[in-house]
């Protein structure tokens, strides 16, 4: 039932292969993130950010190149190299997090991501879903709006604008993920076995973006929740004058003589 014919898989086996690859991607990624969270230094963030952007550039090249999509073994080499760059790049956002916080955020992202996949199954199985291209347009518009909100946040230093931008990014990524699954389902008759690797990796990217968004939420909350030390710090001269004022004359004389 599940044997490929002419390089093609039926829908059931395509889903099974994709799920297996996804599990490998996520489990290996979690292991690397936990190790890097323990041993990575803050000074390494420059290198991890370079890895993050290099992964996005390489992924774009893979999408535009049929050779990198289907040419064995280079398609596996390209995807795995891109996967490793992306996984290392994500550590830029967890470098200042504890292992417990990182595990909590990763698990939260997994629950959201799995919930979206369950919603996709419900749409395909029980509901006549809308045109995926229309939904993808909404997702792209959402990303554009989020970029505008980020620019406003940088100009006005408004916390609420940054929070709204992150919420819009998360919603847009969820919409794009749903579109990706629906388009894959619509094209199931044309998909090859090699497509499972690319489909699984794109779903992994959606998971990573959701996780990064949650990390940014936490980082921003930590930054805005930090007390303003300039308002709470008391200078030594002020403390000395206050201390002198509360002493009786004899004790005040001893205090001044000992501290001068």
From TrEMBL:
<protein>
    <submittedName>
        <fullName>Uncharacterized protein</fullName>
    </submittedName>
</protein>
<feature type="transmembrane region" description="Helical">
    <location>
        <begin position="74"/>
        <end position="95"/>
    </location>
</feature>
<keyword id="KW-0472">Membrane</keyword>
<feature type="transmembrane region" description="Helical">
    <location>
        <begin position="45"/>
        <end position="68"/>
    </location>
</feature>
<feature type="transmembrane region" description="Helical">
    <location>
        <begin position="164"/>
        <end position="184"/>
    </location>
</feature>
<feature type="transmembrane region" description="Helical">
    <location>
        <begin position="133"/>
        <end position="152"/>
    </location>
</feature>
<feature type="transmembrane region" description="Helical">
    <location>
        <begin position="12"/>
        <end position="38"/>
    </location>
</feature>
<feature type="transmembrane region" description="Helical">
    <location>
        <begin position="102"/>
        <end position="127"/>
    </location>
</feature>
<keyword id="KW-1133">Transmembrane helix</keyword>
<keyword id="KW-0812">Transmembrane</keyword>
<feature type="transmembrane region" description="Helical">
    <location>
        <begin position="196"/>
        <end position="219"/>
    </location>
</feature>
């Amino acid at each position: 039932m599940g044997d490929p014919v002419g390089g093609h898989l039926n829908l059931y086996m395509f889903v099974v292969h994709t799920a297996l690859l996804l599990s490998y991607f996520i489990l290996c990624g979690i292991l690397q993130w936990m190790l890097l969270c323990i041993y990575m230094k803050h000074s390494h963030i420059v290198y991890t950010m370079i890895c993050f952007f290099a992964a996005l550039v390489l992924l774009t090249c893979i999408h535009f190149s049929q050779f990198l999509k289907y040419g064995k073994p280079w398609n596996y080499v390209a995807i795995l190299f891109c996967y490793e760059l992306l996984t290392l790049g994500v550590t830029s956002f967890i470098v200042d997090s504890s292992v417990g916080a990182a595990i909590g955020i990763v698990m939260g992202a997994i629950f959201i991501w799995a919930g979206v996949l369950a919603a996709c199954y419900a749409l395909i199985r029980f509901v006549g879903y809308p045109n995926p291209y229309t939904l993808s347009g909404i997702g792209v518009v959402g990303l554009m709006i989020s970029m505008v909100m980020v620019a406003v946040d940088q100009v006005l230093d408004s916390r609420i604008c940054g929070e709204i931008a992150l919420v819009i990014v998360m919603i847009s990524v969820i919409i794009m993920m749903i579109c990706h699954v629906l388009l894959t389902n619509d094209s199931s008759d044309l998909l090859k076995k090699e497509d499972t690797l690319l489909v699984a990796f794109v779903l992994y990217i959606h998971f990573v973006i959701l996780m990064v968004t949650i990390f940014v939420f936490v980082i921003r909350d930590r930054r805005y929740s930090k007390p303003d030390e300039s308002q709470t710090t008391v200078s030594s001269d002020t403390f000395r004058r206050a201390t002198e004022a509360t002493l009786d004359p004899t004790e005040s004389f001893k205090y001044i003589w000992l501290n001068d």
